[in-house]
Design a protein that fits this description.
DNA polymerase, domain 1, 3-stranded antiparallel beta sheet, 3 strands
Length: 347
């Protein structure tokens, strides 16, 4: 049975369990603890959850039913580690901090958390100094954790599902540089390595982590030009065709080095650290007279926006940037629209 069917069946079973428990409580007028001991309810739940080896134990035992069901996680901490597994280091760091912040504030196990606890946590974030986008991300990660715990069978219910996420202003347009600003950054950079680095960030639309990890074996010639193979988020690999001028700039950096050597060497001969790339970008922006706090990701935003402005198909931009969904790429169209109904009004 596929994972989708397993999740669907389990969701239906959980709904049936709630209904049967409601009938038991309605007929017997007992509280939740007593309903846990109801042999009819316990037998129905055991059958629905497909645990025949535990069926007799579930009927006879006076322990809570949850303890008779095998679970993928034995504690909140273990569930969090399972939830974070396979994500990027940056995402793991941010999501772990969100989960720890939530658990510290509510002071409860995830099993005991109610919707009211989540709403109080959301209210406390709104009253904090966090930016609206950070609050949205924090609550989204908490909702993801509860959803994951429910799908895994660790949590009986996904109590975070009804939690409403606050809206926030999308500041993407503020992080898109004009083409002339980018060109000024590139032309005023006199250091050969740094100019090639800035050019590749922009032309290939790379993330800073992807650029820092590049080595010569990731470059493949294609006639007079060439392409680079990039390992992006979630281990997804994509190939990006480079213009002839950019390819030649990269090749001019190569000396008598092996294929396993980094393309952009640090002073110690290893890979550049992301913080070093940040400093290179910041200095180039300041040199070009840009007052914004420019990060390497600004050049990636610029790539997407400028390519779409010049008529590149949105699906091609999506593949080049490695977006999982075309909706993500579509944000750049909304951030910098080419037309508006306001232009049809009388001035």
């Amino acid at each position: 049975m596929s994972e989708i069917w397993r999740v669907t069946v389990r969701t239906l079973c959980n709904g049936c369990v709630i209904f049967v428990r409601f009938l038991c409580e309605l007929c017997a007028k007992v509280d939740d603890r007593q309903s846990q001991k109801c042999p009819i309810l316990r037998k129905v739940i055991a059958i629905m959850l497909h645990v025949p080896a535990q069926l007799e134990t579930a009927i006879a035992s006076e322990a809570p039913l949850d303890s008779t069901i095998d679970r993928q996680a034995g504690s909140d901490d273990q569930l969090i580690e399972l939830w974070l597994h396979g994500r990027s280091p940056h995402t793991q760091k941010a999501y772990r901090a969100d989960a720890q912040r939530f658990l510290r504030q509510v002071g409860k196990r995830l099993h005991d958390v109610k919707l009211a606890d989540l709403q109080l946590f959301a209210d406390s974030l709104s009253a904090s100094v966090l930016r609206p986008a950070s609050i949205h991300r924090c609550l989204s990660s908490i909702k993801s954790l509860f959803s994951f715990g429910h799908r895994l069978g660790y949590l009986s219910f996904d109590v975070a599902r009804p939690l409403r996420l606050p809206g926030y202003r999308d500041g993407l347009a503020d992080r898109i540089l004009e083409e002339r600003e980018v060109q000024r950054m590139l032309s005023l950079e006199l250091h050969t390595r740094n100019r090639s680095l800035l050019t590749l960030l922009y032309v290939a639309g790379l993330r800073v982590s992807e650029l820092c990890a590049m080595q010569w074996s990731h470059l493949q010639p294609r006639g007079e030009s060439g392409q680079i193979t990039v390992c992006g988020k979630r281990g997804k690999t994509r190939s990006i065709l480079l213009p002839k001028s950019v390819w030649q700039k990269l090749q001019s950096l190569r000396e008598d080095t092996s294929d396993e050597q980094p393309v952009f060497l640090s002073r110690k001969g290893g890979h550049l650290a992301p913080s070093q790339v940040w400093r290179i970008v910041r200095r180039a922006a300041k040199r070009a007279g840009i007052t914004k706090a420019v990060s390497p990701h600004f050049l990636r935003h610029g790539h997407a926006s400028h390519a779409l402005d010049h008529g590149a198909p949105i699906s091609l931009v999506q593949k080049t940037l490695g977006h999982a969904s075309v909706a993500t790429t579509g944000r750049y169209l909304h951030a910098r629209p080419s037309e508006s109904s306001s232009t049809y009004l009388c001035q």
